[in-house]
């Protein structure tokens, strides 16, 4: 269960990061609301997952998921330029996240 919550929390990190950018310094109401709710749920899920997953592993996976999805979303919908290098680097982050999960599973 902790892994499922951690993955959902990583997705929510991408949600709040994107909403933060769209809030324009908290001057736009709905992006600010989405940011606030997403942040609370994301952090709460991370804290829950850390009860069973080591802190370093949980945090790295949470950040990796959130960062990868934030960049991917920005390239698809936000006008951020895409390139083969960026895509390969995102795939590298995803590979590291999978590797951390596998190492944690092997340790238990």
Automatic annotation (TrEMBL):
Membrane topology per the entry is:
Multi-pass membrane protein
The compartments listed are: Cell membrane
Q: Has the keyword Ion transport been applied to this entry?
A: no
Q: What is the lineage of its organism?
A: Bacteria, Bacillati, Actinomycetota, Actinomycetes, Micrococcales
Q: Which residues cross the membrane?
A: 33-50, 57-77, 83-103
Q: Which InterPro entries match?
A: EmrE-like, Small_drug/metabolite_transptr, Small_multidrug_res
Annotated protein name in UniProt: QacE family quaternary ammonium compound efflux SMR transporter
A Gene Ontology cellular component where this protein is annotated is: plasma membrane
């Amino acid at each position: 269960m902790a892994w499922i919550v951690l993955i959902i929390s990583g997705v929510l990190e991408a949600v709040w990061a994107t909403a933060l950018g769209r809030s324009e310094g908290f001057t736009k109401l709905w992006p600010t609301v989405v940011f606030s709710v997403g942040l609370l749920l994301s952090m709460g899920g991370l804290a829950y997952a850390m009860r069973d997953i080591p802190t370093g592993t949980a945090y790295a996976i949470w950040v990796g998921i959130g960062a990868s999805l934030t960049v991917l979303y920005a390239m698809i919908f936000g006008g951020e330029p895409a390139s083969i290098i960026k895509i390969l680097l995102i795939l590298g982050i995803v590979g590291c996240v999978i590797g951390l999960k596998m190492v944690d599973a092997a340790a238990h």
